[in-house]
């Protein structure tokens, strides 16, 4: 039964403007954007300061009220959606969107967790700096969610995950204490690095309220190559060459199959085939630098020429303008929307040792086909860092509820194969609710035990984001 007196205590403490308790006001906050999960809550709290977050958590801790942190609601695993308990309090930091500082000497940015990622990237650009974290949802997702899921994106091959970009954190612990770790130091060997526990914890250890982030030189010179390849093995050999010749200039190396491009051409208006012939797969490569465009373009053309001579790709197109850069990227970025238009599908966000990707694609495909013939493989991802989005679409002509019957078995086939190659069942999307059972199945029991014990230290009453990860 909903504790109305507790909701009133929240309103009395934080102000009625910060606390919503009516059913109509709460309703939009109860579902994830994919429509997979829907829960319940007694209140939505939208604090404006770290002290208000602390006051909220202190009240919830005392009353043993569960708290569900909510960012931009762009996640794919249900981590920001409440469970069925009507006592839940949803806590959103969307009003905490200040950029506290940008330091162009130390090359750091300090920003609050409710900031939209795209706004942070643009603010850095205005200061002639680069915040390299870049996602398809960057104009909707919030920094707190990026940190809580250790988001990846397209530039990981050069700059690393969100974890590598975070120098310090400010966070509120479940009991209302404030963790003052908002340091911009590059070096700090004073014991355990507690911020790294908070990053990727999906809101189960506390609420991140602000972060100090690394900035890099703004790379205004960009050259994109779209190359056609016959196989994943050929793409891997091309990656080796680009990594050797391009060095740190290579910031993206994306792979997608012909089936992905077919969907984009079929479902996205205004898209055109990049080559006269259809090829088995494609890679999209971006190199960026601060030098003049002529030097970078000469490097790219030399390397791609060598790749063609060595038969590491079968065709290639080099961008001639920013418009072409953007149009090439659209071929990759529109895959998810095209698949959504095609109908229900099953997503697998997995990572593998990079050298094992070609073998995995062959054997996983065989397992899927053996389990149910005709399932369409829509495979794309961040090849350069080992992250594949190994998605399944229903066989042509199959009913829309195909995966209600076959999805679980197909997922088991895919993830068993991931485990066989020493991979991970979640590369950048997290665990949330979606992968909770698989997490228990595939994670080492000792690791799970240690994680549970860490969680108890931070959150002894178990109020933080219940039902997520564990």
UniProtKB/TrEMBL annotation:
The keyword Metal-binding does not apply. The keyword Flavoprotein applies. Belongs to the FAD-binding oxidoreductase/transferase type 4 family. It holds the Pfam family FAD_binding_4. This is FAD linked oxidase domain-containing protein. Keywords: FAD, Flavoprotein. One of its GO terms (molecular function) is FAD binding. Its cofactor is FAD. It comes from Caballeronia sordidicola (Burkholderia sordidicola). InterPro entries: FAD-bd_oxidored_4_C, FAD-bd_PCMH, FAD-bd_PCMH-like_sf, FAD-bd_PCMH_sub1, FAD-bd_PCMH_sub2, FAD-linked_Oxase-like_C, FAD-oxidored/transferase_4, Oxid_FAD_bind_N. PROSITE patterns: FAD_PCMH. Residues 37-218 form the FAD-binding PCMH-type domain. Coiled coil: none annotated. One of its GO terms (biological process) is respiratory electron transport chain.
């Amino acid at each position: 039964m909903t504790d109305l007196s507790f909701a009133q205590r929240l309103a009395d403490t934080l102000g009625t403007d910060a606390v919503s308790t009516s059913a109509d006001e709460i309703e939009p906050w109860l579902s994830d954007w994919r429509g997979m999960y829907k829960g319940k809550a007694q209140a939505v709290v939208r604090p404006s300061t770290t002290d208000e977050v602390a006051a909220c958590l202190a009240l919830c801790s005392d009353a043993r009220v569960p708290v569900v942190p909510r960012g931009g609601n762009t996640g794919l695993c249900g981590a920001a959606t409440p469970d069925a308990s009507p006592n839940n309090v949803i806590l959103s930091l969307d009003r905490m969107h200040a950029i506290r500082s940008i330091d162009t000497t130390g090359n750091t940015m300090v920003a609050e967790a409710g900031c939209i990622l795209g706004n942070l990237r643009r603010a850095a650009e205005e200061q002639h700096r680069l915040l390299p974290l870049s996602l398809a949802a960057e104009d909707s997702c919030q920094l707190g969610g990026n940190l809580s899921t250790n988001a990846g994106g397209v530039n990981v091959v050069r700059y690393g995950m969100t974890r590598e970009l975070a120098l310090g954190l400010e966070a509120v612990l479940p009991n209302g204490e404030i963790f003052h770790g908002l340091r911009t130091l590059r070096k700090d060997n004073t014991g355990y690095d507690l911020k790294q526990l908070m990053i990727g914890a999906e809101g189960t250890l506390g609420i991140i309220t602000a972060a100090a982030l690394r900035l890099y030189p703004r790379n205004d010179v960009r050259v994109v190559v779209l190359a056609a390849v016959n196989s994943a093995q050929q793409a891997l050999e091309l990656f080796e060459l680009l990594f050797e010749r391009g060095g740190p200039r290579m910031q993206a190396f994306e792979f997608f199959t012909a089936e992905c491009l077919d969907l984009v051409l079929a479902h996205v208006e205004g898209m055109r085939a990049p080559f006269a012939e259809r090829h088995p797969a494609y890679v999209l490569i971006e190199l960026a630098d601060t030098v003049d465009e002529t030097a970078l373009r000469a490097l790219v053309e030399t390397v791609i020429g060598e790749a063609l001579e060595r038969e590491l790709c079968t065709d290639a197109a080099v961008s001639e303008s920013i418009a072409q850069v953007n149009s090439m990227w659209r071929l990759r970025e529109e895959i998810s929307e095209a698949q959504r238009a095609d109908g229900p599908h099953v997503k697998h966000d997995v990572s593998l040792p990079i050298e094992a990707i070609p073998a995995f694609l062959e054997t996983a495909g065989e397992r899927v086909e053996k389990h149910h013939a005709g399932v369409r493989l829509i495979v794309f991802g961040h090849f350069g860092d080992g992250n594949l989005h190994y998605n399944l679409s229903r066989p042509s002509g199959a009913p829309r509820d195909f995966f209600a019957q076959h999805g679980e078995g197909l997922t088991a086939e895919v993830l068993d194969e991931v485990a066989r190659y020493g991979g991970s069942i979640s590369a950048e999307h997290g665990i949330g609710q979606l992968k909770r059972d698989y997490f228990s199945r595939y994670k080492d029991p000792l690791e799970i035990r240690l994680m549970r014990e860490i969680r108890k230290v931070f959150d002894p009453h178990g109020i933080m984001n219940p039902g997520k990860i564990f």
